[in-house]
Every structure is written in structure tokens, then in C-alpha cells.
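Hi there,

I know you've been waiting on this one. I reran it after we fixed the sequence typo, so this is the corrected version. Both the input and the resulting structure follow.
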Amino acid sequence: MLLRKPKKQAPTDAIGDDRSSCPAMEGFLKKLNSQGVWKDRYCQLQNGYFMTYKPKDKKGPSNEIKESIDLKTLVSVNINGDDCLEILLNNGTQLLYKGPELHVWLGTITVRADWSQDKLKPPIVDETSHSTELSDAAPAPPSTAISQSMEGLLKKKNSQGVWKDRYCQLRNSFLMTYKPLADKSGPSDELKETIDLKKLAKITVTVADILEITLSTGDFYQYKGASLDVWIDLITKRSTWALLTASAFSTPKTPFEVPEEMGRRSSDPADPSEPQSDADNAGNTSAATVEKRSMEGLLRKKNSAGVWKDRFCQLQTAYMVTYKPNKDRQPSSEVKETIDLRNLSKTFITSEDVLEITLVNGDMFEFSSAGAGSVLEDWQEAIRVRSKWALQGLGNRSSARVASMKGLAPSQQVPQMEADQEDNDISGWLMKKSHSKYQGYQTRFVKLEGPLLRYFKSDSAAEAELGSANLLTAEFVRPFDSTPDCTTFELQDEDRVFAFQTRSHSEMQRWVLHLQTARQVAQQQQLQQQSEQQKEATPIRIRWFDELGEQGFSAHITEDLDEMYPPSHSEAYAEMTSLKQHLACATELAEYLKEFVPEVQKCESRPARYDILAVMMALVNDALKDRLQPVLSTAAGPAEGADSDVFVRHDLLEWASLGDLLGLVDWLTRYQHSLARIVCPVRLRNKEEGVEDAAKNRSSAASNPKSCCLFDYIGPICGLYVHGGTLGAKAGAAAHLYEHCRKVWDSVLRSPEEMLQRHQNGTFYTHAPTDMWEAINQHIQLAMSTQSPILHVMIADKVVSSLTPLIDQISEYVAVTMTQDTTDRAELKEIELEFVSALANDTATHIEEVIQLVEAFTIAEIRERIDEIFDPLTTNLVKCGQTCLNRLTSVVMFDVHELLDAVFMPDWLEGNQICICINTISDYMRDLLEFLVPFWAEKLVHTLLEAVVLGYTRNIVFPRRSATTSLASKLFSVALGSDSDGPTHSLPAAPASPAAAPKNPVEKSGGFFSSMFKSKASAATPPPKETLTSPAPATNTFFNLYNAGRCAVDADSLGRIAQDINTLNSFFSRKTSQTTATDYLEILNDVSLMLFTEFHNVLKHAIARISEFPSASEAVFQTGLSCLKLRDDVTRDELQIFELQLRPALDCAPSAMKQNEVLGIAEGRLGLFYNDLVPKELLQAAMNSRGGAAAGMTLAQRLKNMSNIPLFQNKDSLAEKSKEGFQDGEESEKEDDKGLLGGVMEALSQQEEEDRAWQQSKEEELLKEEEMRCKVGILSYDGYLEKKSPAHNLWQRRWFKLSTREAVPANLDRPYVYNLMWYKKEGGAVIKAVDADNLASIAVLQTPRPLAYLQSSRSLALQSDAALKTDAVTVVAHGLADCSLQQVATLEPFVAIRLLQVDGKESILRGSKVDRVIKWVNLLALAAELSYDPVEHIWKRS
């Protein structure tokens, strides 16, 4: 719907004045009639009337007018909660309409009503200054703004991020978007959005040519298309018009003019905040006719995101309007903010030169200067005046008073000064220079009250002060210059300089003298008061040191220490007969030192006194040494320096109990840690350092405040606690541990049936590990409570020495004493299985406790050493558990040995021996897996399966001569090995008779199992001794005799073996996995291949296995040879060929095995099976015949033994350990002479040394910082200065900093390096840095005050301060023509200097504070070693 003139004209009597330039609108709406029915009406806005017609065919209005509403009678118009347009007239009539575009109707009716009521007047638009001034009210919209309409097709991004075609129109203060027609020639009737431009917050066109519109409500819209620049310009104008229109409606009609002083920048303006007299107002009749000038200019404003943006600001009537500047730094048409100064709360200029404007609603705006110089004070004053005028509705203010003061002498301007002669107070009328640059001098009543110099507007007692200066913090009070007619003096308090003007020179001198005297008196009183307060706050012991010196301080402290702990030469010391008494007194001394440490720490009133702390620590350490060293020694006799009748006992340690020794270790360790935590950065005396230099560094009484010889006794005392002494603690902690563990095991042997317990999950256990580790953990906790790693390590070492022999006894008990026959008594066999399972579970408990003990050590190096200490114990525990599993396996295998002995016998071909064997083993396995913890249960499964496959294979390859084997022989045939050097899973062979069994302490206990074993063994007959088959003669006849009674190697036997392999594979895969079953049955597959394949294939296969498993080379050879002997198709010559072909491989096997061990290569499980398959006697005899020695435990064997043991996190890789543990006949490396415990002590000492070095480095850094602060040569200064940009003639405000650092490498002539750095702002990033050594010269370019150079002090000063100096040289300013500042505006208020570098680069700096620039010049000249040349008038190197 377009903005257009109405098609139907109202009657002439309904039309007022011509308002055709106002917004018009027409369209269809529904109106609620008096009967409550909604009727279609065609509505039009015509001049000052709202006309409604009856529609004609729904295409337009008919000639029938329904209502004619005079908008002059309009009271209100709004949209209610039912989305209806509600119009209320002054006669009480209420009209309701609904339909599309109600917001547009609302805005258009409102504007038309205001126009009809003469509320708006045409504005005056100044296109050149981009400012709008209303004649008598707030800014009004331009008359052309509403007529500049625009419409067209654009693309708009919807909420889903999709660009849609939209037909856009500008209507009044709204941007309307419609869904376009199908041909996109115009808008349809579907309205999509209505954007209220009065809420416009930001509108921009991005780099990607996208028009972005942001409203104050946070709504965000994006458009793209053609003519975006035109759209943004018109939308901006529409928004400005809408805002100004809304402001015009709410602005009061009382007009006021802008005062002349708000636009003028005069050096002597009037203060509009002061009240004016009637005479003043009467004398200024021409002020109203002066042309009004509003203040405007470019500033920088911080937006909501904290980013500073350039803004062109204007003061327009009661508003401060900010525009976005264009490329010419002039205001554009985009209004950013409109600040109503009638809501002003306060204005403030921060220390960073930021103008903060705060409104009553809490809104705050921040502005800073955008160009050279600072104009913020001008803006602040103008804003304050404008706000007052806006609030009070004042007219023109006269400046008669200011005009009357111009051109008059000071005596005529300033009232007569009256000074009070009472005390030091003085008062009178003075002219005070305003803090603003453009306010000049103002008459003030100045009064000195104590240290405060106050100034007021009048001398009335009820007058509130305008400000004050504190003489306590004032840097100077001095005349402005040294001329005889000078009537001005200045006073600097902190960062502000106050200037006062008197009526005469003598009056000025009297003020200066009086203020200087008052300043000196006030500062002396303050210093005296601070000194008294500091003295009262200083602890008494620090005052001893300061007032009496080091000797007096030491005397007082020694007296206190002697009262707490009698000295060693006193009688009271001789009466102390127990170690507890000495520890109680030593604790008092340590607490005395601990209470003193906070007294010397840094606080607000005084610095840290580390020199006193060092002396105190040395005195306490010496006192403890004097008292405790005789106690810690072992000699007895009179004390040194004591009378002959005073006898001191020096054997207290020998008579001390374990508790006393533990307390002594605890006290020494805690005192050592407390000393280490004290921060005392005192430089230690060097041996090459002279006495004078040492005295400078620190007090002579403290050579090392943290060293104490008592700490050397910690190790021996720990050893006495662990091993015991000769008198008191004869049995140390180690003896207690061993005795307790032995008693626990003896109780298990005496009544195993009582010790045997069962968990709810079915696993068996005994109380032995719990009882043992309860005592062990008590000793460990006591050692840890002392915070002494030395004692902790010693106790851990004794845990190993106490448990290792005990674990060996348990292994021997299971391996030897319990190998009797229990097959005839089922109940005894069941108890045996349960008891052995409990012993195996106990080893798992021991291993868990060991892991927790090792992990308790926090220092990594010590934890590694402790892990090494526990390696033998861990190995014994694993071996003991494996021994228990071997015993369980032997009991199970005894029940199936007859089935396995029938393998490769005639009945075997048709029988089901393997199925029966598997069923029997499954029954046992079901119970044993319930008896054992998961730690050992999985390993038992592997042990049983390994025994089955080896027993089956051994009965095929290595048959025995005797047809009837004894029990021991049968056990041996199914066992996994017997010698102690072999694999840990091997079972020892049964002794020939009970009498031949080795005697051990276990049998003497007469336990439950021992009696049964003895009774059963006495009835048993010794088994016949059997021998292994010897090498057979190489004839086929012998083969027949050798295999007599056994199956022939043929297709039947091959089929039976294949059937059994399938049965075993199914059983193994159910119990473990298919991969494990394949690995276990691989040995049986190899034997089958050697039995049934051709000879040359057997030869190749054997050579391949030897190269793959060099550690099992002899076992592979014997297995292959036995398989060939079983075959009747192999001749003697082929056997000899087999041996000759394998000879080179057998000779190379030892070296290959050694190389695999070094490289950490595990050969695999099959090699272990080969070694376990061949009988040990046969294997040993074959290796002896070849001149070789039995190999040690291989890496593969060790990996197998350690499987399922979670100790990897505490052990190095087995591959690394194999390099040291491999035994090939060579001697192992010699152990360190210090031993393992010595290595732990060394690691602990290294850790302590590292901690001590780190702490000392920190203290040295702190000491160096303190020394640098006290040394002369440390220069530091910072502050804001203005620097001329090298690219253009503009000044940039920068933060400058002069810093000092030590020269690297050290240089005695120039120990420090000085750098001048400048930043964009304080705390920002460095823009540039200049080394002071690179400064060639410094020159003064311009100064508002005369300067002088004092040759004696080599410093720059004001000429007024140097008037009485005979060596003062006047400093000549070079002027602007001598530098690149010729095009820069005048520098009158500033002091400008030039820094010229060696490479010719120059930096031009300036500052408005003369004293600050003087200090900068002096510091830079000192840092660069420059002096003033009175001829060239510059600072340069001499």
C-alpha cells in the first residue's frame, strides 16, 4: 500500500489549511459499529480529518461518508491488547479498527494530528555544519525528510538463514516489507515485517554488500540488493526525523538561547556556574545579540564492546548529539547517540584523560580526545553549563562581571588581603587560576587551616569550600618566577599545580614564606608521629636489635634460650636423665623461633628484616647443637667446659626405647623441614670473600642460618631404631617384624584346619597375610608419620628381609612336605586342595600389599629403588603361588595318569580315554576355579591344559621301559619338570622313600597334615627305580623291539591322534580361547608331522624350529630323533644324516639365544613346550655329551611366569632386565659397594639438595631485588607525554616508561642498562623502545617558563628556583624553526623537547606539566650520561 493523496476529497467544510506536505494514507479497515458488528470501511487521512467511507465493490471508496473525525479533537490513539487500533476523542467517543498495517496507521495518524494542532514548525537545516537548531524548541524533523520516499525489491535473510525476495517501502517512520507479486513488479497484500525506525540503533553496509539494521531492542535484519547506499541514506534520515519528532513532542515550549560563552574559547571567560549580580546583568545588553555558537568537534567514544570509535559531537539545545564522521572528519547523516543533558548526573575527567558522562538513570558515556591537545576540560565545562541552563530554563547570561575585570590592575580586581596572625594560619583574598585552560583567574578567599590550604567563594563561615591543597603531600611552594615584580606563587599537590596571584610582590613573598614554614612544620610533625607509631608497632625483639645492636640482641635471645633449655655445662642440664625431657625443651626452642618469624616479615609499616632473622636462626641452631649433640653421641664423661663434679650422661640413645627413638627422628625431621620453609634471603659467606665484604652482605653471627649439624644424626638414629641397640632397644623394628611374621606362620602350621577360612564367593584364604601386614603397616605408618624418607626406606627394606625367608618356607612346605599320596582318602584330598588354594590366594594378598607399599613413596627416584628392593620378594611370592598351582595340578593329573599312559597302546585306538580324561579334569577345574581368586584361577587353567597336552605328547614320543610304573614315576611322567633351575611351574620328583625325604622345620611342628602324611608314607613301599630308554641300535629289528606292545605309526594311529587333537581343541577353546588352544596344541601337531611326513620334510621342519627357538634347540633335536625312532621306515643312515644336518644349527643356537635376550625378543610358547616335553635327564645328558651347559631362564620363560601379575607399573621392562639377568656362564656385574640402601640414601640426598638449591635460588633473587632497590643507579619513572607522529603533524598521547636492568654480561663500569619505552596506553603493548646509550643529544624546543641548568648538580630546574645559584646557566629554547614542528600549531601551554638518536632519528615530546618534563630531562640525561653544553644549548656527551 503506497503513500498517496486520497482519491476522494472531503467536503470543503471538512478541509482545513493545506497540509499536503504531511503524510497521507488510505486503505481498507474493519470498524466496530454500535451494534458490535465489524464492518468494512475505506479509510483516508485528509488534511486534519480521518475520513471513513462505505467501500465500493471492495476496490475503493464510494460516495457515502460514514464518519469524519477532526484530528484536533483527538485525545489518544494506540493499539490495545486485542490488536485493535483504538481512537479516543475529547467528547468521550471511542472508535475501534482492525486490519493490516495498524502500526503504520498509528504513526501516520499521530503525525497528522500533531500537524493539525500546530505542534510542529519547520526546522532550520544547516547543511554545512550538519547541525539542526530549532527556533524555540527541541530539534524538529526536516520538512523534506518525510517526502523522500523509496520502495523497491531487495533480498532479506530470514531466521533460517535463507535469502527471500521482499518488496520494501519507506512509510513515515517505518520500513515495510511485503511478499512480492509473482512477476516481482510490486508488493502483494501479505505484510512480512514492520520495522520502527525510531528504534534504530545501528545501520551499516558490510564489505560483502549486505545492509545490516540493528534496533535498540536487539532485533537484527539483513538485506542485499541494488542501491544500498541510497537505502542507508534515506533510512538514516527517516530515523533522525522520527527521533527528533518524538523529542519535539516532549520538549517544553519555554525557549532559551545558547549563551555566548558556550561557543567561545576565550582566555578569560566568565564562570557561568557563579551567580551574577544585577549590576553585572545590566551592563551586558549586547550579549543577547551576539551570534550563537554551539560547541562541536571530533572526539573518541568507547562503545558497549569497549572499543574506541571516532564520533563527531555537537551540543544542540539541551542535547549532546554524536554522529558517525565521514572521510573528511565531518558529521555524516548517521546519528549514533542523543544524550539528554537534562538528565545529567555528573561529569568527571579521570587520570587517564577520559571524560565520563553519567546520567540519572545510570547510563554512562566515555569520551577521550581524538586529536592534538586535550579539549576534554572545555567539553566538561560546556556540558555542565548547558545542563544547568536546560534544567533551570535560564535566559542569556551576562558576562559583565568578566568584562569589568578585564584591563584592571590586580589591586583593583582583588580585595584587600587580611592575614590572621594566630599560630600558623593565614587567610585572605587571592586570585586563583582555574584548573580549566580557558577560565583564567577567579577571586577566591584562601585560608590555611593546619596542613590544608582551602579556598572558598566568599569569606562567610557557612560557605562550602571549593577545594583544598595538602601541604603534607605538596612537592613545593615557590614563586612563579624570580622577577622583582612577580605577584604569583604556585603549589604542587600530587598531580595538580595551584597558582595564586596576590596584589603585590611583598604580599606574595609573605604567603610563600608562611606556607613553606607551615609545610616544613607539618611534615616534621608527620614524620615524628609516624616514627612513634612505627616504634610502638615494632616488636620488642626487633627493637633490641636496632637499639642494642647485634651483640645486645644476641645476649637477650641467649638469656631466653637458656631459660627454656639449660645449657650443657649447667647442673640443670645434668639432671635431665631422659630423652623425652630433652625433646620437650628442644620443642620449646623450635616454637620460640617459629613465633619470631612473623615478626620480621614485611608489613605496611616496615620492610622485611631478614638480617635479624638470620641471627635468630643461627642462635637457636647453636643452642640446639650445644644441648643435643652430647645426647646424640655415644661417649660418656664430664661435659666440656663443666665442673668436674657435673657428670652428663651421653648414653641416653643406647637406653632409649623404640618410641623415644621414633620421637627423636620425628622431631629432627620436622625441625629440618621447618627451617627449609623459612624464607631468609641472606647471602652466604664465600671462602674467598673478605671480612669486610662478608660484613656488608650479612651479619657475622649467621654463617648459614639453615644449616644444623644435628641433621647428620638422622641416619644413624634411624638405623638404631631399625636394628636395635645394646642396652635399651636391643631388638629393633626389624626383629619385631620378623618375629611377628614367624609366629603367624607357626600358628598356621599348628592348626591349619582352624586357620582355613572361606569367603562368600567360595575362595579360600587364611588369616596369615592379614595378621602379618597389620603389624607391617603399623611400622610403615609410624615411619611415614615422622616425615623421614630415610626411616621409611629402612623399614621397607626390613619388610623384604622379614617376608622373604617366610615365603621360602611356605614354598618348601608345599613342594616337599605335601607331596605324599592322599588318593586313598577322599576327605583328605579335598582338604588338601582347599588348603593349597588358600595358600595360593594368600600370595596374591601379599602382592597387593607390596604394590600399595611401593606406591606410598612420592619421590620417583626413591620409588624406583624401593621397587628394586621388593623385586626378590615379588619373585618369591610368584614362585610360591606357582608352586601351589603345581601341587594342585599334580593332584588332578594323578587321577588321569592311567588314561594318558594308555595313549599309543593297542586299546587306545578303539577307546575313549581322552574324553574321560577331559571330563575328570573339568570336574576338578570347576571346583578349583571357585577355590582360587581370579589372580591365580586363570593361571591354573593354563597350567592344567599344559600338563594335559604335555602328558599326552610325552606318552607318544618318550615311552618308558617299565610296564608298571610307581606312583612317583607316574607323577613324574605327568609333571612339568623337577629341577629348581627350570621353569617355575615344574613339580619336583617324588623321593625314593620317606626316609630319603629332606628334613625341614615344617615336619617338626607335627601339624594336621604332617601326621597324616607320615602315617600314609610308612605303609607305602618304595617304588622301583626306573630308567629312561637309551639310544637304540640302528636296525629295524630294534625298532620292532623298542615299540613292542605299542601302536604302529600308520594311518590308524594318525587318525586317532587327529581325533584326539580335535577333542582337545574343543575342550581348550571352551576353557580359554581358540587362539590359546591353537598355541597349546601346536606341539602335538609338530609331533604328528614328524611321525607321519617324509624324512626330508622332518629334517627341514626341525632346522626351521631350531632357528626359530634357539633356546629349545636340543629339545627339538631330541624330539625329532625320538619320532624318527618310532617309525619303521627310517634307517640308521638317515638317523646319522639327521644328526649331521642339525649339528651346525645346534652349534649356532647359543649365540642366537644370547642375541635374542639382548634385543628383548621373546621366542614364544612353543619353545617352552619343547623344553618341557623332553625328560630333563635325557636333555641334560645330551647337552653334557656335547660339552654345553644348561641355559638359564629365558625371557619367554620369565614373561610366562609373570603373566597375570599386575606389577608392570612398578617394574622396568623385562627386556631391559634380561640384559643384566641373562646367565651364559659369565660372571654378573659387581654390585655397588654402597648397596641398594646406600643408593636410596644417595637419591634422597640428591632430592634434598635439589630442593635446597631451588629454595636458595629464590632467596637469592629476593635478596638481589632488595639490594637493587637500595643501590644508587636504579632509575625508574613513567607517565603520559605527547609524542609527535612521524607520519603527520599530529600529537599522540603515549605512556612513557624509563626502566633499569642489569647489564649482561656484567660490566663494572656500566652495571645497568636503561631503556626508554612508550606504549599506546598504560599496561598496553610496547610500541617502541630506545636504549639510553643510543641517545646522542637532548634539546629544549619551547617552554612557557624560563629554565636554568645547574652545573654543580648537573640538573635542569626552573630559573626561579635557581636564582640564588651561582653556577646556574640559562637554558635557551631552540624554537620551532629548529625542528620538524614548523607546521604544528603553537605550543604555548607545553614544554617541548627533542631526543636525537645516534642514527639521526628524532623523537619530539611535549608535556603541559613543566616539573614533570624537567624530571624526564634530568633522568634521561643521567641514564645517557649527557651534560648540558651552554654553547650549543643541548645535552650531549662530553
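Quick highlight: The chain has a mean pLDDT of 74.

Best,
R. S.
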